[in-house]
Amino acid sequence: MGRKYYCDFCDKRIQNDSLIIKKHTEGLPHLRAKAEHFEQFKDLEQIVQESKGKTPCRSLQTGNECMFGALCRFGHYTDKQLWEIQQHCTANTLS
């Protein structure tokens, strides 16, 4: 048996077959893991700009974790959290 394909984003090994790899990389768990990985490298200003016009996520309003994570098209920050992030950005640019 040949080597297995290792997905860095999902931290799992899968069979080294192009069709299986393609199916894996198009799946929601992989896309979510990839988006969450790159989410950690965003600037605070970019987070504020992206979150300003979004409607709040219904899952987070009920206290549940959003199943879409970083792929969710709704906002995951409250107005107070966005204001605090913006104040932090302003303080960093003034220093």
In what order do the strands lie side by side in the largest sheet? 1-2
Number of strands: 2
What level of helicity do the residues show?
Answer: 40-55%
Beta-sheet strand percentage?
Answer: 5-15%
- The N- and C-terminal alpha carbons lie at a distance of 58 Å
Question: What's the average pLDDT?
Answer: 88
* Structure class: mainly alpha
What is the overall silhouette? elongated
Order of helices and strands: EEHHHHH
The main pleated sheet reads as: 2 strands, antiparallel
**How many alpha or pi helices?**
5
List low-pLDDT spans. none
| Radius of gyration, in angstroms, nearest whole number | 18 Å
Describe this structure in words.
With 95 residues, the protein is mostly helical. The protein has helices at residues 18-25, 28-39, 44-51, 58-61, 79-94; strands spanning 5-7, 12-14. The longest helix is centred in the C-terminal third of the chain and has 16 residues, at 79-94. It is elongated and about 55 Å long. 0% of the residues are buried.
